[in-house]
Amino acid sequence: MLRIQDSNGRRTMLAQIKPGGSAKLGALEDVNPLLRRRLRDLGVEEGSLLKVLRLGPMGGPLTFECSGQLIGIRREEAGRMEVLPV
């Protein structure tokens, strides 16, 4: 587990990264266990580099790229994935 906080003690979540931005995945502990397992099966693990590609309209899914794969998840779940912007 890689806990990431800024100087004020706040955590950055994947849902806060703008399209075109990249981040290193920190922690998946707060994510639904089924989604966590599915992401790990797809090779998305702590330390993976993620690039946010799209945000769906009207609160739709967030699409990101990891290791050449495009993955879409609910924005609510992306709000539980800790990242370190790069």
Could you explain how this protein is built, in words?
The chain has 86 residues and is an alpha+beta fold. Helices cover 15% and strands 31% of the residues. The protein has 2 helices and 5 strands, in the order βαβββαβ. The chain has helices at residues 33-41, 75-78; strands at 22-27, 49-55, 62-66, 69-73, 82-85. A 5-stranded antiparallel beta sheet has the order 4-3-2-1-5. It starts with 21 loop residues before the first strand and ends with a strand. The mean pLDDT is 90.
Number of helices: 2
Please write the string of helix (H) and strand (E) elements. Answer: EHEEEHE
Strand fraction: 25-35%
Helix content: 10-25%
Q: Main sheet: which strands, in order across?
A: 4-3-2-1-5
Helix-strand category? alpha+beta
Short summary of the structure?
By secondary structure, the chain is an alpha+beta fold. Helix content is 15%, strand content 31%. The longest helix has 9 residues, at 33-41.
Structural descriptors:
86 residues, 31% strand, five-stranded antiparallel sheet, 5 strands, alpha+beta, globular
Set out the fold topology.
Elements (H helix, E strand, L loop, with lengths): L21 E6 L5 H9 L7 E7 L6 E5 L2 E5 L1 H4 L3 E4 L1
